[in-house]
Each structure stands twice: as C-alpha cells, then as structure tokens.
Amino acid sequence: MLAIHGGEPHKKKNFPGWPIHSEREIKLLEEVVKSGNWWRITGSKVKEFEEKFSSLQGTEYCLGVTSGTHAIELGLLALGIEKGDEVIVPAFTYISTVTAVISCSAVPVLVDVDPETFCMRPEAFEKAITKKTKAVIPVHMGGHPCDMDFICDIARKNDIYIIEDSAHGHGAEWKNRRLGSMGDLGIFSFQNGKLMTCGEGGCIVTNDKQLHEKLFLMHGVGRPDKDPYYQHYVLGTTARMSEFHAAILIAQMERVNELNQKREKQAKYLDQLLEQIDGIRPQMRKADATIVSHYMYMFYYDADAFRGMPRQEFIDALRAEGIPSFISYPVLSDTEFFKNSQFFGKIDAYSYDTEEELPNARKIAKEVVWLPHYTLEGDVIDLEEIAGAITKIQKSL
Ligand SMILES: *Cc1c(COP(=O)(O)O)cnc(C)c1O
After folding, report:
1. CA 265 to ligand 1 center in whole angstroms
2. Ligand 1, atom 2: nearest CA belongs to which residue?
3. What is the model's pTM?
4. Pocket of ligand 1 (CB under 6 A)
5. Which of 165, 190, 293, 373 to mutate to test the pocket of ligand 1 (most atoms within 8 A of CB)?
6. Which terminus of the chain has fewer Cβ atoms in its 10 Å neighbourhood, N or C?
7. pLDDT tens string for the chain (397 positions)?
C-alpha cells in the first residue's frame, strides 16, 4: 500500500541532512566571536573568503555581499543599467533573476529555455535583442552550465553585458572554465538551500578590477575601505557580508569540489535508474558541461504513464514514501506580481512578454519535478530507494 494511504514508506534510511557542518565551522566562528572584529572593515574573514572563493571559481576578484539577490542588483547598477534599459533573462528561473532587474528600474525581457538542459536558449536571447538591450543574465539551471560560447559571442557582437547567475553553480564548469568567470560578472548565493551556505549570503565575482572597486564602494554606501571620514563617492547601499557569515563559508567551501564529484557520480547512476521508468525523463547533460553541480535533480514527469495522476499528487505520494520532492519554478510572467503589475513604480508596465509564448518554459513549469541536492549526497541505496519509490507509485495505480 502507498504510504500516502497509510502503508509503510518505501524509504527506509534517511538522506544526509542539509546544511552540514563539522568542527571546522565552529572553530572559525569562535575565532570571529572572540576576535571582537565582527564586520569586514576591521576583520579578516570576509577578505579570506573572497580570496579563496575567487580562486575556486577562477576569477581575479570576489566581493562578499548579503544575498544572491543583492548581488544581481548591485551588479546591474555597477554596469550602469538604468531606467528604460532592457535586460534579457530566462523565463524559467528563480524569481530574483527578474526582480533584481525591476528593482533597478530596468525592463526584464523573458526568453525561452532549452527543453532538455532547461538553460536559456542562445537563439531566443539573440532574437530578443533591441536597441535598448544592455545586459543578459544567463542562469546555469540546477548547476548545468548555459552554452557560454554562444551567449558570449552574441553578447560581444551586440555590446551587451553578461551577468552569470551562478546561484546553483558553485564549482561547476563549462568546457573546463568555472561558472561566473566567463561573463562580465558572476553572482552566487549562499542561502540555506544552496550548495554551500551560511544561512543567507551572496557574492559577485569578476576579472574586472574597476568594476570590482566600484562594487566595493556600492556595497558600503559609497565609502572607500577603512574610511574614517564619512566620505561617500557613489550612491550605494549596505550589503556587506559579516565576518560570521564568511567564517562559515570558508569551512563550507572546503567541501564544494568533493560534494560536486559525489553528486556527479550519484546523478549519473540515478539517470540510469530513472530512464528505465516509463514516463520519467531526467534533465539532459551536455558533453561540454565538464562539471555539473546538481543543485536540483530535475526530471519530466509524464502523468499519462501514471494513469493520469496529476504531478502534485505524484509529489505528495513520493514525499509520503520518504523522498523530498518539489514542483519546478513557475513561468515568471505567470506569477501574481507580474500579473498584477506590482512593480511599485519601478517600471511602467510589463509589456515585454515574448510573442513566442515561452513553450519550453511552460512545459517545464508544468511537468518537471525536482529533488534537492542532498538526495545525491548519500550512497547508492538512496538512489535505488528513489527509483523504487517511483516504481511503487506507478505499479500501485
Ligand atoms: C537562490 C537564487 C538567487 C537568489 O539568491 P538569494 O541569496 O536567495 O537572494 C538568484 N538566482 C537563482 C537562480 C537562485 O536560485
């Protein structure tokens, strides 16, 4: 009997927990507490984190900030994006990719994604370019890299800035280049669910010294480093990362490559298991994606192969069997704030929804199920239990 009807859950052992920590986090955190230097201006941990993270991602510079959302907003502002400018974004992503654009009074132009990798289609990006286009924000969906050769090529030809939204892509690579290092700027999130976390946090990486210096000023209300005189050089906000957050991140970062390797191995095996189940089709992986970080393990669910069981019911049943699972992001133009134009005067109207109806984003939003990354951080038994739970549901119908 299905667990949702009172039967025994199929999953017998627990998945690894998330977030994880060791004595290392505790030791570094304690160092900060006892040092009395709790903010970056007097402490050393944020600086250390920035140096280590930029070398992890293969960039010259990194700036720690308060969230991934703030990282995108600051990035856009530092690039000079302003009222009336257009910024091209994928229609299938977490909402921040788009709200950050609106927060800068720029107009987001939503374009479709690839039906197999779920990443922005470079052809759709190219087609959406107008005279007003100033930037593009490719999102490396679930840690699968976008086609950065194609995207960089189009952007360069058209004088368009690139911000790589790498919130899912810590340590991931496209053709042996780390995510965030190929655009003008790359952003990361360290929010609780992300692949390394300090509860809330983010950062901006770049190879451009001037941009980095401008971002430093902007993330501290325009003040230069160690400024004792209340000098304010540019308009900014307060988005500095604290020493506590950096202490945790230094420890978290030490596990990133190892966890990526583990998830890569586990995801390949789970692909094999799930491909044998009628009606289940995992996100595809391109050969040029040399490291995929698997922030979300995503697959299409075809209700027809499950006697028409709606996706939400399937997820409820799967959860009852002990497998954490979720529906994918909505198409962003379908969210309430877009439908009701709740833009607080930042932009006049949302008039740039593509004429193309975003068919792939729509299909993904309707049919895709995802499992969190920690489901790939245990052992092969976990994977066999995931496949077993899905098969159990299918056979019971
Ligand atoms: C999490 C996330 C963000 C925003 O990060 P926060 O730290 O939560 O502000 C941006 N883009 C994507 C794709 C994300 O998943």
Report:
1. 25
2. 167
3. 0.97
4. 67-69, 93-94, 96-97, 139, 165, 167-168, 189, 191, 202
5. 165
6. N
7. 999 999 999 999 999 999 999 999 999 999 999 999 999 999 999 999 999 999 999 999 999 999 999 999 999 999 999 999 999 999 999 999 999 999 999 999 999 999 999 999 999 999 999 999 999 999 999 999 999 999 999 999 999 999 999 999 999 999 999 999 999 999 999 999 999 999 999 999 999 999 999 999 999 999 999 988 999 999 999 999 999 999 999 999 999 999 999 999 999 999 999 999 999 999 999 999 999 999 999 999 999 999 999 999 999 999 999 999 999 999 998 899 888 888 998 998 776 666 668 999 999 999 999 999 999 999 999 999 999 999 999 999 9
Q: Which ligand 1 atom minimizes the distance to the CA of 72?
A: 10
Report the residue among 66, 67, 69, 295 best suited for mutation to probe ligand 1: largest number of ligand atoms under 8 A from its CB.
Answer: 69
What is the whole-number distance in angstroms between the Cα of residue 45 and the centre of ligand 1?
23
